[in-house]
Amino acid sequence: MIDSPWEYAPAPESREIANLKPSYRMFVDGEFVDGGGEPLKSINPATEELLAEVSSASESDVDIAVRAARRAFERTWSTMPGRERAKYLFRIARLIQERARELAVLESLDNGKPIKESRDADIPTAAAHFFHHAGWADKLGYAGYGPDPRPLGVAGQVIPWNFPLLMLAWKIAPALACGNTVVLKPAETTPLTALVFAEICQQAGLPPGVVNILPGAGDIGAALVAHPGVDKVAFTGSTEVGKQIQRSVAGSGKKLTLELGGKAANIVFDDAPLDQAVEGIVNGIFFNQGHVCCAGSRLLVQESIADELLEKLRIRVRTLRVGDPLDKNTDVGAINSAEQLSKITELAASGDAEGAERWTSPCPLPEKGFFFSPTVFSGVHQSMRIAREEIFGPVLSMLTFRTPAEAIAKANNTPYGLSAGIWTEKGSRILWAAQQLRAGVVWANTFNRFDPTAPFGGYQESGFGREGGRAGLEAYLDV
Ligand code: NAP
Ligand code: MG
Question: 115 CB contacts (<8 Å, ≥6 apart)?
Answer without folding.
Answer: 13, 104, 105, 108, 325, 326, 327, 328, 330
